[in-house]
Amino acid sequence: MSEKTKAVNEDEKRQRFKTLRTVISFVITAVCLLILCFAAMNIGSLKVSAGELFGGLFSGNLSDNAATVIDLRFPRIIISMVAGASIAVSGTLFQAVLKNPLADPGIIGISGGASLAAVLITAFLPSMFFLMPIAACCGGILAFVLVYTLSWKGGLSPLRIILVGVAVSAVFSGLSSAFNSMNGGNMQGVAAIVNGNITMKTWDDVYMLLPYAGIGLAASLFVTGGCNILSLEDKTARGLGVNVSRLRIVISVIAAALVSVSTAVAGVIGFIGLIVPHIGRILVGSDHKKLIPFSALFGALVFLCADTIGRTIAAPYEVSASIIMNIAGGPFFILLLRRSKKYV
Amino acid sequence: MSDIQPKKKRPAMEVRGVTFAYGKNEVLRDISLKITEGKITTVIGANGCGKSTLFSLMTKNLYPKSGQIFLRSRNINNLDLKEFAQKAAIVHQYNTVCGDITVEQLVSFGRTPHKKMMSASTEEDERCIEWAMEVTDITKYRHREVSRLSGGQKQRVWIAVALAQNTKILLLDEPTTYLDVRYQLDILRLIRRLNKEFGITIIMVLHDINQSLYYSDEIIAMKDGKTIAQGRPEEVITTELVKTVYGVDLNIRQIDGKPFVIPV
């Protein structure tokens, strides 16, 4: 009896420890994000004190320096955070839908499809600029359907999805680069999407990204329970009255939309959708009710971090966030592949 | 209620003239059977006789080519998955769990068919979850991760998930496979208790013929996609039937008034 009680106590202790770890992870990530925000505002040739900035914001009469910072750096910081959150959540959702811990919207070609659509609009229908997020979503969803159907062979092998995704991704990014070159390679909007460059972002870009990403992120909070159910065997989930196919489609569309609108504005950023959910699972566990909000927060931190490093590491030259993410994400991906004997 | 002294009980489930084929390969041929309310009914048969296919059809994982299947006189084709799950719970043969989900969290999934999206759990939910864990004797593991449990304990958790659905019908597909004999008996005794104590109608597929004979009120024997016998074990089981179903000559003995097949 006493041994049983001991075991029960140990279980409870472990659960309490996990809860504590979750809370601490959320708090520390939020604090880091806040600090990084202030740092990012002040990194660069112009320096503005927080007091000067906020005093100006609330009183309405900004100093010239503060106004410049607000117009140049704020959009960039906001876009980094929102896109980072969206891409990370998208990765978490794709991993749940595909039951594949290696699924990353960049690697499996979703971002590639979205970016091609965005490039086409920018290059050929610049007047339809406002349609860009919608077009990118269509591109992303199309890419997902393509990858999904091409990897289906009586089932979905995790590795086959990755391989097909890499191929589809290569074609899409090749086409995007080709259109970029055909336009002389210096058409700013096209090149920015292709290279994942967010240097010249303005408030217009923020207004374009924010509503779509906001809706997508809010929607992702409604499917957390669904993501948990999908971790069961399909038959078992059906036995619980869940229409598994419909649930998969709903979650996939949310995931594709999130990464697509981010791609339309910030370009193709790989590995965030892979790294963030993985670290998230270690820190807050696999329950999507915690994992998805944490992925959003942590994704924002990672992207902002990558962008801030990118523009300070070789100032006055800039290394784009996507390049920083590739350099940091590649080794991480290899580490995951080597650790999981199950998949390869 | 006429539950105690039924005039004429309608069947809990009924299969009427069902045919099913994978492509051109006909697996079930014009199969008909009735599952008696409040009894334990076990489907037996050799490998490839179609019993798993029958189970899939009865749980809406496959759809018959022709014929109908009724759950309490409603055609299950006209029930959506949620309605079905509110009336009948299923324990599948193969289950996996990933991540760090705890026993209590997993059992609470059993309330899914009774919930609206995003709604909080009700007192009824809590009561069903507690009851399901209590009956299956897993309350003591409630805060433990399912991945840390043994095979026998895991199987009890999966049964608890189904019980949390609080249905009067429970379907189980080979619930004792992959388990040591000790845990097999554990599970079968639990199933019998669910039937006797709580009046849950049990429909299961079993591999072991003697366990089927000992624990069932009714046996359905299948061969080549057809039912060849249905009834109480002591009435149905004969040397000829065993020979037809499994293709081997085996002796049958009576122990405590129940038939046993000597499997050597």
Protein architecture, described:
- The complex is a heterodimer of chains A (344) and B (264).
- Chain A contains 14 helices and no strands.
- Chain A is mostly helical and 344 residues long.
- Chain A has one domain: ABC transporter involved in vitamin B12 uptake, BtuC, CATH 1.10.3470.
- The longest helix of chain A has 41 residues.
- Chain A is globular and about 70 Å long.
- With 264 residues, chain B is α/β, with parallel strands linked by helices.
- Chain B is globular.
- In chain B, β4 and β5 form a beta hairpin.
- At the A-B interface, α1, α9 and α10 of A face α2 and α5 of B.
Order of helices and strands of chain A: HHHHHHHHHHHHHH
Indicate the mean pLDDT of chain B. Answer: 91
How would you characterize the largest beta sheet of chain B? 6 strands, mixed
- Spatial extent as radius of gyration of chain B: 19 Å
Which structural class matches the secondary elements of chain B? alpha/beta
User: Can you give the helix content of chain B as a percent range?
Assistant: 25-40%
Dominant shape of chain B = globular
CATH architecture of chain A: Orthogonal Bundle
Q: Largest protein interface?
A: A-B, 28 and 38 residues
The count of domains of chain A is: 1
Describe the global form of chain A: globular
CATH superfamily of chain A: ABC transporter involved in vitamin B12 uptake, BtuC
Q: Separation of termini of chain A?
A: 45 Å
Overall SS class of chain A: mainly alpha
What is the count of β-strands of chain A?
0
